[in-house]
Specification:
heterodimer, A: alpha+beta, Rossmann fold, 2 domains, 11 strands, about 25% helix, B: Methylamine Dehydrogenase, Chain H, five-stranded antiparallel β-sheet, four-stranded antiparallel β-sheet, about 45% strand, IMP4/RPF1 (chain A), Anticodon-binding protein (chain A), Brix (chain A)
Chain lengths: ~350, ~400
């Protein structure tokens, strides 16, 4: 059966049988090979070196705009850009979330999750205001960010983020939205400020987008809360996740800390002098033998994917505004190995 | 070919186009938005109309205008690499902040050989007219209506325009408005007036043909292209709808002996197209334009080549006919690292692979530049008068 190409079999039932058998044989082959390698490694025999797979990520086209880690010129530019005041904690972000003019009820589940994920976020109904009017209103009320969610068929499909008063505006396509209701074994969000992880924003444009997204959060995380929001860029898609983490080996301390938190006590070490058999301190993270500490994650709030469509200079103005970057499919998507962020 | 680019963090860079090499970066270590370069222009030669390619004026966001001298060394094989030097000669403070454009114009005083003046126009409408040499006097200033988004100057004349502020031509010496544009007639069916927002201006004819800036090409934020003749009428001679985005930059390519017939249009989404001025139709689109708004153009003084810079941090140099790069691609795309606001072309011709400069191109101008020589020289290098002499030089590897 191995040499037969199922595509040449005209009978559908027979064709699918042959294909299934080939699939199962391939999976069995892979499993046996793995088992052999594990046994060989256990016995100390030489394991055949696994070839590095060729992927789109590791064959990515060279991009001269990738920022070197020691680039002083880019650092100096970023020290004076529109987001520096957020990263310096000079300004605390204050976010207004709104929707398209007549939102569906299902969108509010997503908005609720967003408001739990983003500190200092407020929802206002859109009614019939234009985005320019919203920007003006937000400036009057000293908001720093405006989020406008658009949707199609009751699912969020677009996110416009404007940094105020005069900062850049970006529009992202939103996909694969999963609200917290649909997440299995989800945790509960606590009011602690989350930590922020920005992964793989390597090019100059990537830096810009990474800083744009990072400016939405205050940069004074509560490590007690062990909550983290991750923006992971891969192939120009930005995966947004909200987790609570716990380091392995510290479940007891974590449970103790959680109980202490429930009781309304903010102290990391628990109530001093209290009995009850709880450990008073959270254990250190470094292993004595230098081993890495494993982390377990519990997913919290929403899960969604962003892809940037355009980044505009100034507040929203698609008629007369200037674009810093706009995705032009025919010119920019010329190769499967070319990415912009 | 060499270009000079300036960006919003205050850096000025000199590039060798063919080898895509950065020759000089001026301002590293002093980057900030308040020192961002908003105006950049060549100095004026003694005849009052042609530019002096050894002198450049830099206008910054904080209202400081600096006067520099620029010198070049051509490469000679691999042993003598190409390089350039920039030296600040003087600076003038107290100019209006948020400069929109900076021009070196002939002297405004009544004497025959009055020194060239520098005209700085800001977004609030303040126009400062002062001698290029900071020590030669304070000059004068006048106020144009705000907001001003674009301005060009030539001879003794400055043209300004902005949102809801149609084009006005000012006499720089007296500060009087000599001509103001009138809007096109209302839309007949809808009875709605067409909004006014000139966002890019360019002179239609060369300086020696039209010293008083009577023929203007304007692009608006509402996607119109308009031709004006200030001697004939206040309304535009012709107007067309053009493109899908705000027009942010324009330049006119001289057509050899006759009058210019091609304009390059840059818009807010980075699109670069050629406009035929005779038929007012779009001729060609330049390939691989990038996604950022075009901020400025520079046209080579002798070759049919132009450079475009913008918010996508790349300077693209194109052949006007669209060839050279293959499929309309640019001759060179220089990654600038910062969002550039201004670009200028030096008057060096094309460099051949072994570093020699194409003398034929230099000879077209009829000047005696002597660019084929490998000797380093500085034209008109005066001692710096007031400001600090900042010097930075970066040697590059051979071409």
């Amino acid at each position: 059966m191995v040499g037969v190409n199922p595509a040449n079999i005209k009978n559908k039932i027979k064709r699918s049988e042959v294909y299934q058998k080939q699939k199962e044989a391939k999976a069995k082959d892979k499993k046996d090979r793995r088992k052999r390698d594990v046994e060989a490694a256990a016995l100390g025999d030489e394991v055949p070196v696994k070839k590095v797979q060729r992927t789109l990520d590791n064959t990515r086209e060279a991009d001269e705009t990738v920022v070197a880690p020691d680039d002083e010129e880019v650092e100096a530019d970023e020290a004076g850009d529109e987001f520096a005041r957020f990263f310096n904690n000079e300004t605390t972000p204050k976010i207004m979330i709104t929707t398209r003019p007549r939102p569906s009820a299902e969108l509010f589940m997503f908005i609720r999750d967003l408001m739990q994920m983003l500190p200092n976020a407020f929802f206002y109904p859109r009614k019939s205001a234009t985005v320019k009017q919203l920007c003006q209103w937000c400036n009057n009320k000293k908001f720093t960010h405006l989020f406008v969610l658009s949707e199609k068929s009751k699912v969020c499909n677009g996110l416009l983020v404007a940094v105020l008063p005069a900062g850049p505006t970006a529009f992202f396509k939103v996909s694969n939205v999963k609200t917290s209701e649909d997440i299995h074994n989800r945790g509960t969000v606590s009011p602690h400020q989350p930590e922020l992880i920005l992964n793989n924003f390597n090019t100059r444009l990537g830096h810009r987008v990474g800083r744009f997204l990072g400016s939405v959060f205050p940069h004074e995380p509560d490590f007690n809360g062990r909550q983290v929001v991750t923006f992971h860029n891969q192939r120009d898609f930005i995966f947004v996740r909200h987790h609570r983490y716990v380091f392995e080996g510290n479940e007891l301390e974590a449970a103790a800390a959680a109980e202490v938190l429930d009781e309304g006590d903010e102290g990391q070490n628990g109530g001093a002098g209290e009995g009850g058999g709880h450990k008073k301190k959270v254990a250190t993270l470094k292993g004595k033998d230098g081993s890495a500490t494993r982390t377990r994650l519990q997913e919290l709030g929403p899960r969604f994917t962003l892809k940037m469509r355009w980044l505009q200079e100034g507040t929203f103005d698609t008629e007369c505004g200037e674009y810093e970057w706009i995705h032009k499919r025919k010119e920019m998507d010329t190769s499967r190995r070319k990415f912009h962020l | 070919m060499r270009v000079l680019t300036a960006d919003e963090t205050g850096l000025v860079k000199v590039w060798q186009v063919e080898s895509r090499k950065l020759l000089v970066t001026h301002g590293l270590g002093h980057q900030s938005r308040v020192r961002g370069v908003r105006g950049l222009c060549w100095g004026l030669a003694s005849d009052g109309t042609s530019p002096d390619y050894s002198r450049v004026h830099v206008g910054r966001e904080n209202g400081v205008v600096e006067d520099w001298s620029v010198s070049h060394t051509a490469a000679k094989g691999k042993k003598l690499p190409a390089s350039a030097t920039v030296n600040q000669r003087s600076q003038r403070e107290g100019c209006p902040a948020s400069i929109v454009s900076l021009h070196a114009l002939p002297g405004t005083a009544s004497e025959a050989d009055s020194p060239p003046t520098m005209v700085a126009c800001s977004a609030t409408g303040e126009v400062r007219v002062a001698p290029c040499d900071a020590a030669a006097g304070e000059g004068s200033s006048f106020k144009a209506p705000a907001p001003v988004h674009t301005a060009i100057g030539r001879g003794g004349v400055l043209a300004t325009g902005g949102q809801d502020n149609d084009i006005k031509v000012w006499d720089v010496a007296t500060g009087q408005c000599t001509w103001r544009a009138k809007n096109v007639p209302m839309d007949a069916k809808l009875q709605l007036s067409v909004p006014v927002w000139p966002s890019a201006l360019a002179p239609l004819r060369a300086a020696h043909e039209d010293p008083a800036l009577t023929a203007l090409l304007a692009g608006t934020a509402h996607r119109h292209i308009r031709l004006y003749d200030t001697r004939a009428a206040r309304r535009p001679r012709q107007t067309i709808d053009y493109g899908e985005h705000r027009i942010t930059a324009l330049c006119v390519i001289g057509g050899g002996g006759g009058s210019a017939h091609t304009a390059i249009v840059g818009d807010a989404a980075g699109e670069l197209t050629a406009l035929d001025l005779r038929a007012l139709r779009r001729r060609r689109r330049y390939g691989e334009p990038g996604g950022g708004a075009v901020r400025a153009f520079a046209v080579h003084p002798t070759l049919p080549v132009f450079a475009a810079v913008g918010l996508d941090r790349v300077c693209r140099v194109y052949d006007v006919s669209g060839g050279g790069g293959g499929g309309g691609a640019p001759l060179a795309a220089l990654y600038l690292k910062q969002r550039a606001s201004r670009v200028l072309f030096c008057d060096e011709g094309r460099a051949t692979p072994d570093g020699a400069i194409d003398r034929a191109a230099a000879a077209l101008e009829g000047g005696d530049d002597g660019w084929g020589s490998a000797e380093e020289y500085e034209m008109g290098a005066g001692s710096s008068e007031e400001g600090d002499a900042e010097e930075s030089e970066m040697e590059s590897e051979g071409d």
